[in-house]
Design a protein that fits this description.
Elements (H helix, E strand, L loop, with lengths): L2 E5 L4 H13 L4 E4 L18 E5 L3 H7 L14
Antiparallel strand pairs: 1-3, 2-3
Length: 79
């Protein structure tokens, strides 16, 4: 079964939220560059970006679960 990219978290807080949601719903995942990415916190360089990977068969369910995180920030605001 192939692993595919689900999302690239913007910071440690977002990564923690994503991991919590996936854990809570029994979706197995892998965080590419998880520990390497924390060597230079705050810097978003191509070599230290983290990517959350899931099995291809879980992509739809995981995408639905994290759907609100991937919306542009201004769509959910009243205004």
């Amino acid at each position: 079964m192939d692993m595919v990219r689900l999302i690239e978290p913007q910071d440690e807080g977002e990564l923690a939220l994503i991991k919590s949601l996936l854990d809570g719903n029994g979706i197995r995942y892998f965080v590419k560059n998880e520990h390497f990415g924390s060597l230079y916190p705050g810097l978003s360089l191509p070599f230290n970006r983290r990517e959350v990977m899931v099995h291809e068969s879980e992509l739809g369910r995981a995408g639905t679960l994290l759907g609100r995180l991937t919306l542009p920030h201004n769509l959910g605001e009243a205004g």
